[in-house]
Amino acid sequence: MNKGNAFIEIEIQVQISNSAELLKFLEKDAEYVGEAHQIDTYYSLAHRDFIAVRPVEEWLRLRDSSGKQSINYKKWHYEEDGRSHFCDEFETVIQDISQLEKILTALDMKVLVVVDKSRRIWNYKDYEISLDSIKELGDFVEIEYKGKGAQKEPKEITAEMIDFLKQFNVGEISKNYVGYPFQLLFPDEVECERI
């Protein structure tokens, strides 16, 4: 979503007890986009360690998504309660990920973690809905807002996403505010909101 000059990303990432009705709905009523195997490699600067602060606010990622390659930087904005509902996001396609990896290494950047993800993607109204299977973490649902709701606050949009999920008898919803790389790096620090 564009907000002024910045692109902001509004999304939720959750684990659910039962995905059967949601999957049935997606297969019947949503537009299937496709599947992707994504390898996300996260980096940090040697002189400014992104993961030295809590909550972690910055992530720099190289992604190979079934042969489509990109670089992405996210700057998360946190509420007073330590929860985040959106981030500033900057992303561009790259032609040769191996050359960029060499450049980052030459600049003394270090690899933090690699996220190995299988993703199935659907579009439904203002949402991109992904069913993710993350190596070493398990299965998740990620919903990203793709609408033009400039009049809505990110917190309101994420609440609507939760309401959307609840209509499919998904059981307990376990929402994290930290993302896959943090969960892999610091599993003992992950706190989930049970909904």
UniProtKB/TrEMBL annotation:
<protein>
    <recommendedName>
        <fullName>CYTH domain-containing protein</fullName>
    </recommendedName>
</protein>
<dbReference type="Pfam" id="PF01928">
    <property type="entry name" value="CYTH"/>
</dbReference>
<dbReference type="InterPro" id="IPR008173">
    <property type="entry name" value="Adenylyl_cyclase_CyaB"/>
</dbReference>
<feature type="domain" description="CYTH">
    <location>
        <begin position="7"/>
        <end position="183"/>
    </location>
</feature>
<dbReference type="InterPro" id="IPR033469">
    <property type="entry name" value="CYTH-like_dom_sf"/>
</dbReference>
<dbReference type="InterPro" id="IPR023577">
    <property type="entry name" value="CYTH_domain"/>
</dbReference>
